[in-house]
Amino acid sequence: METAPMSALTFDIVARCSVTKARAAILRLPHGRVDLPIFMPVATQGTLKGLTPEQLENTGYSGGFQMVSLLKLARITEEGVRFLSPHDGTPMLLTPEHSISLQNSIGSDIVMQLDDVLVTTSPDHQRMEEAMRRSIRWLDRCIAAHKYPEKQNLFCIIQGGLDLDMRRECCEEMVKRDTPGIAIGGLSGGEAKASYCAVVDTCTGLLPEKKPRYVMGVGYPEDLMVSVALGADMFDCVWPTRTARFGNAITSWGTLNLRNSSYAQDFSPIEAGCGCACCKPVEDGGLGMTRAYIYHVAAKETAGAHLLTIHNVHYLLSLMRSARTAIIEDQFPVFLKEFFKKLYGDRKNFPEWAVNALRKVNVDLLVE
After folding, report:
1. FRET partner for 212 with CA separation of 20 to 30 A, picked from 9, 88, 191, 299?
2. Residue 124 banded pLDDT, cuts 50, 70, 90
3. Is 115 exposed, middle or buried (0-12, 13-18, 19+ CB in 10 A)?
4. Would you state the pLDDT for residue 63?
């Protein structure tokens, strides 16, 4: 068994919610400070679709890098992942050692282990167990291959599907390796939200308090808020940028499809009071874009997706900032109730999975 030799980060918890498992923290990395909890937009091929680097900087957060293996026609063995290049069809082999070498050469603050991932809804229990155990073995190889632990942080990835016993075993083994941070992977693959919450709640209950917890592939606002209450700190997802390309704007009141003709004569901003460059009035230094303008360009030009990406990324980053403030002020349960009330209106519309998950951390959304 390999153990991570050192850490290039500091993680300080500055506040804990007195009711839920939520916490506010400061993560200091070689390239700067990150306030947690945080949502991280996914940068496919090193760039955030729809935004220039300058515009991304103006949303208020530094970027990251995520390496994603394309697993179409892939064959996974103990050696690594064999797949066809998405560019020219050339057979390729990605091993744990090579994945770490690539990330070492990029210089990213956070390096993710190569893990064996199986969709959570798979009925193949034996294959799920194999993937979980292989991910542990691959972590040992990643730790051994990691060249720069003094300036780059290797995160392990907890696997095990929806089987809580597998998740517990994986948590126990991964924690022994003592990596600087810990990710919970293999979720958001079509599983029931109640099952997702059970996995996150179980894992956070077993992970060290003084390390950042990263739940991979989560981006819906209500999923983020429940996951924060369950004790997670970091999240990433393609959804806010992908949904922008289909004309959708994320707001506190729900998602608006601005390709709908009902917005053709609507000259209000996407969301009143939003501080993003798209919504902010011209006199305040913004673009002053209206729903009507975005309706006009959304289906015909890239400008619509560009503007909606600015708004959507800003919305989620702002939501996480607000959640952090509520945790620090020990008002997070109140914040959760206000968030769900605004998003769903009548309490009878609140999703059952969210109500049940939050009850487990002492918040009853159905009670004032």
Report:
1. 191
2. very high
3. buried
4. 37
CATH of the domain at 91: 3.20.20.105
pLDDT for res 71: 54
What's the pLDDT band for 342 if we cut at 50, 70, 90?
very high
16-25 per-position pLDDT tens digit = 999 999 999 9
Q: How many CA atoms lie within 13 A of 334 on its CB side?
A: 9
Q: How much is the pTM?
A: 0.91
Report angle CA 329, 330, 333 to the nearest 5 degrees.
Answer: 125
CA distance 168 to 129: 12
d(CA 23, CA 330): 10
CA–CA separation, 217 and 269 (whole Å): 29
Burial of 302 (0-12, 13-18, 19+ CB in 10 A): exposed
**Considering the domain boundaries, does residue 230 fall inside one?**
yes
Q: Is residue 188 included in any domain, yes or no?
A: yes
Look at residue 310 and tell me whether its pLDDT is greater than 80. Answer: yes
Q: Does residue 349 sit within a domain?
A: no
| Cis peptide bond N-terminal to 212, omega within 30 | no
| pLDDT tens for each residue of 147-198 | 999 999 999 999 999 999 999 999 999 999 999 999 999 998 889 999 999 9
Are 201 and 215 spatial neighbours (Cβ–Cβ below 8 Å)? no
Question: How many CB atoms are closer than 10 A to CB 163?
Answer: 16
The predicted-structure confidence for 220-241, as pLDDT tens digits, reads as follows: 999 999 999 999 999 999 899 9
Which residue blocks in the chain are alpha helix, DSSP H?
A: 53-58, 96-106, 125-145, 164-177, 193-206, 221-229, 239-244, 291-298, 302-328, 332-344, 352-359
Tally of domains within the chain = 1
The range of the structural domain enclosing residue 76 comes to 66-107+109-237
Q: Which positions ≥6 away from 188 have C-beta within 8 Å?
A: 196, 216, 217, 218, 237
CA distance 278 to 305: 11
> In degrees, to the nearest 5, what angle opens at C-alpha 32 toward C-alphas 214 and 57?
90
Across residues 108-120, what is the average pLDDT?
93
Closest CA to 56 of 325, 250, 317: 317
